[in-house]
């Protein structure tokens, strides 16, 4: 049985037999903005980032997707009439199952419950993106960085005696992309957090020592965890 994150087992069975398997290298794009939508993808191995280019040319990372995650942008639209609004790029060697969207829509047409399940998954991703845009607009680059750190603890956090280890390697440039800012700006924002021992680094990974401080600064609304993740 193929496991698909956030989908019921009854829905996941429709993904048991992919049309084909795709292997892409680190740094290779799965699709780019304005490419015509054609397929739906399920990550079997590796990670893919979903990016959006801002009007001033900066890269805004919306999600990091990993094994078991679907890449289902605009699933319900006819592929001949819709184009991708985001980029998808592998951050490491990645293996994906590929499903033609039109064929999958026809298969699901007779199973309303499974179709609703996928639509709810798509809506969940839209809600996640909206909350990230909200944090960036309301709280600026600093708030966007703090909310990204909070989301990372929810997605990759491992409790330690002195805090929460984010068990995922990220460069400061990659952190900057979550905030649509520069690496230098992120360096400046992280520096006081390290001096105050709010965060630290351990073997190249971030450790959050005072999560409540980050939440307080951005007036965290304690959204459901399912909305406050990076994937």
TrEMBL record:
CDD domains the UniProt entry points to: CAP_ED (cd00038), HTH_CRP (cd00092)
Record keywords, A-Z: Activator, DNA-binding, Transcription, Transcription regulation
PROSITE patterns to which the protein is assigned, alphabetical: CNMP_BINDING_3 (PS50042), HTH_CRP_1 (PS00042), HTH_CRP_2 (PS51063)
Any one GO cellular component localisation term in the record: cytosol
Cyclic nucleotide-binding domain boundaries: 23-83
Disulfide bond listed as a keyword: no
Domain of life: Bacteria
GO molecular function: DNA binding; DNA-binding transcription factor activity
Pfam families: cNMP_binding, HTH_Crp_2
Database matches in Gene3D superfamilies: Jelly Rolls, Winged helix-like DNA-binding domain superfamily/Winged helix DNA-binding domain
Domain HTH crp-type: 139-212
Protein name: CRP/FNR family transcriptional regulator
Organism: Streptohalobacillus salinus
């Amino acid at each position: 049985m193929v496991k698909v994150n956030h989908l019921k087992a009854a829905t996941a069975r429709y993904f048991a037999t992919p049309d084909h398997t795709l292997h892409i290298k680190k740094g290779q794009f799965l699709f780019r903005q304005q490419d015509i939508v054609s397929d739906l993808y399920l990550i079997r191995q590796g990670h893919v980032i979903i990016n959006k280019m801002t009007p001033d040319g900066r890269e805004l990372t919306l999600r990091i997707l990993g094994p078991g995650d679907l890449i289902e942008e605009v699933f319900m639209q006819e592929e001949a009439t819709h184009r991708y609004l985001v980029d998808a790029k592998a951050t490491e060697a990645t293996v994906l199952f590929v499903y033609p969207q039109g064929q999958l829509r026809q298969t699901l047409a007779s199973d309303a419950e499974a179709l609703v399940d996928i639509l709810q998954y798509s809506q969940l991703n839209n809600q996640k993106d909206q909350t990230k845009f909200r944090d960036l607009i309301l709280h600026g680059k600093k708030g966007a960085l703090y909310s990204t750190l909070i989301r990372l603890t929810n997605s990759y956090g491992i409790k330690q005696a002195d805090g929460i280890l984010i068990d995922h390697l990220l460069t400061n440039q990659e952190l900057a992309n979550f905030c649509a800012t520069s690496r230098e700006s992120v360096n400046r924002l992280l520096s006081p957090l390290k001096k105050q021992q709010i965060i630290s680094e351990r073997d190249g990974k971030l450790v959050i020592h005072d999560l409540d401080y980050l939440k307080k600064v951005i007036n965290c609304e304690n959204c459901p965890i399912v909305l406050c993740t990076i994937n």
